[in-house]
Give the backbone structure.
Amino acid sequence: MSFFNPVFAFVFVPLVVIIYNLFPKKLRAYVLLAISLLFFAFVSKWLILYLILSIVSVYLSGIGMQKLEEKKKEVLKTAEKEEKKAIKESYKKKRKFVLVLCIIFNVTFLFMFKYFNFFAVNLNLLMDYFKVGHQITIVKHIGPIGISFYTLEALSYVLDIYYGKIEADKNILRVALYLAFFPQLLEGPFARYSDTAEALYAGKKVTFESFTFGYQRILYGFAKKLIIADRLNIIVKSVFEDFNIYNGLTVFIGIASYTIMLYMEFSGTIDIVIGIGEMFGVKIPENFKQPFFAKNVSDFWTRWHISLGLWFKDYIFYPVSLSKSMKSLTSKAKKKLGNHYGPLLSGSVALLCVWLLNGLWHGAGWHYIFFGLYHFFMILMGNIFEPSVAKTCEKLKIDRRKKGYRIFQAVKTTILVFIGELFFRAPSLTVAFAMFGRMFNAASFRTGELLTFGMDIRDYVVLMIGLIGMFVMSIVREKGVDVRENISKKNIWTRWAIYYGLILLILIFGAYGQGYVPVDPIYADF
Amino acid sequence: MEELIEILEELQPDVDYETVDDLVDGRYLDSLTILSLISEIEDAFDVEIPTVEIIPANFNSAAKIWELIERLQEED
């Protein structure tokens, strides 16, 4: 199931809007929930059971933790001063027990569907090696679509209640709609309960303005996918399938094309999700912020798949690095190593946890784990050498804020990201390393190779214009200009000329029809 | 407040802490600097900053950090 399917974007979505608007305000949230659940059942059939179990589990855990908190406050009112600390600790433990139970319940589903076979295969290999006469049976099963997305979103709800950021919702239907809103089910982005739950439940009418505004964003997503991603897909497929027949530079072009294709496909999908949200008056958080302008790998991950990065930062990085033992480590290390290297040790332990989990979240395979560790290593190196780089630049009188240096940083980061994504895309670690080596072992280039993929000169010209267009848009947005707000201020003729122009561009230059294979929804597999 | 500004200047000089109000969003303070800052604040002001309070809104300016410290001291 892809959001780029015209039936979804131009038949299903308007139909949902019509049905939604036909109902009175009070009932609209329920209509949206029913549609979302039907949509999920249509894609994942009976596996909807797991989504429902997940919703019920986080709802009940939330209520449980809330009740414990209320009871604690009541007990504290009449408690003696010296008892208070013990009472607080006792209730904290109880709340933690409920939280851990809920996490185990949800993560078990995720593990069984996504990771069981990976661990079983590797354990079997290990048992073989040590000649243990037992093997774990490998079970083939398909997991519910988007399970990695809604599981993390569900966990964010209970974790926010545990940390006291939000209060548990007494209305299970509001929790259900927050977790099951159909555009977010496949590829996120993760929204926090405080971001979308209220607005979704409000049942705001879809107006002509919100409808067209939403479609403006949806069309932008389609342009990214059809004009750019689907053309790059031809290069990517050819190079990754048969990299041994191509020269080094062509292999590099294939590797670079993959990262750009991934960006266009994923951010294009997010444009559709955000656009649908805008129709219903729901502000779904942005997931990308000009990632290719990042100054280092760490900065890149604050601009790419932002909602995932924030999830790991809030629920893994800080809780680990600020745990009692890590805090004491930071405090001791700071006295000996100073303000930069002091927190580096605890920060790195937390960072390692983040990137191991980040790699595993993307998929059950050693190349995903390597992908995570690669980014951990790059960020760690950046942190270690930051003071030396700063000193060297100072000695050489290089102003790190100047445009030239920023361009150098962006190019360097982008190349490092290309390599990381190579390990992400390649079917195995062996292939990834072989492709990496091929870039240097066969470092010559024949332009003719580019025409063997099935793309003609016209395709390359359209691709280049598309890429330049997106690049200019990125520069404008990086400068803080809100292009959409500017368009909305134009008169009706200019606005509609822009909309029709965009539609025509997609229709004329979109890569569909014979000879084109659309990119599969990459992130929906997670 | 002065003590807080001193801590901030030691961790990250070249920032005008009187005026800058996007210390986190503007990426003046990265995750490691925040870890260092938290450790310094906890030692200097005898407070414990819970993970839940580590959000950009609480760390985007010296004034906001000071507000957080005062609030935590009151809660204690």
